[in-house]
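Fig. S4 source data, part A: sequence.
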Amino acid sequence: MSTSLFQNAKKNPVSTIILLLFFAYVGYSIIDDIQTVRQATTDFDYCKGLCDLVEFIGKTITWCIYFVVCYLTYVHKQYSRWILWLYYLAVVVFIIYYICAGNTLDYVFNHIGAEHLDRLPSMARSLYGAPFYFIVFSFFFMPKLIKDTMKLKKEQELTV
């Protein structure tokens, strides 16, 4: 498995560099958000950092799922049954994200402090609105992705 990954990396050095830069950015951003939460001096800074962390992790996971689906369907032109399962995984990620966002908002509400309660609706909008673009993306493009995946499956069945 590791030799296959290494050979793939040698064949596609630009993709490998872009992927490594992406992972470095994600790692840096998560560490930065954690440090913001740890070094917060006020209740609001702590709660805002926590909301930003949850929002970033949810967006990153969702983008990764969509990238893998698009990569396998359009770039790699490979059909496998687990591509269809990635569509279901995206829905499960949305459900888990909203559960985590709700728990985070409850925690924030209990810890934000009375002087910053006026900023709570803004944090709620950022938490609950974060997946809005992904849901719109799913609404418009998932039927096309599923159609293209089924078309790819038929093409592969005809060649076999």
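Fig. S4 source data, part B ends here. The mean pLDDT is 84.
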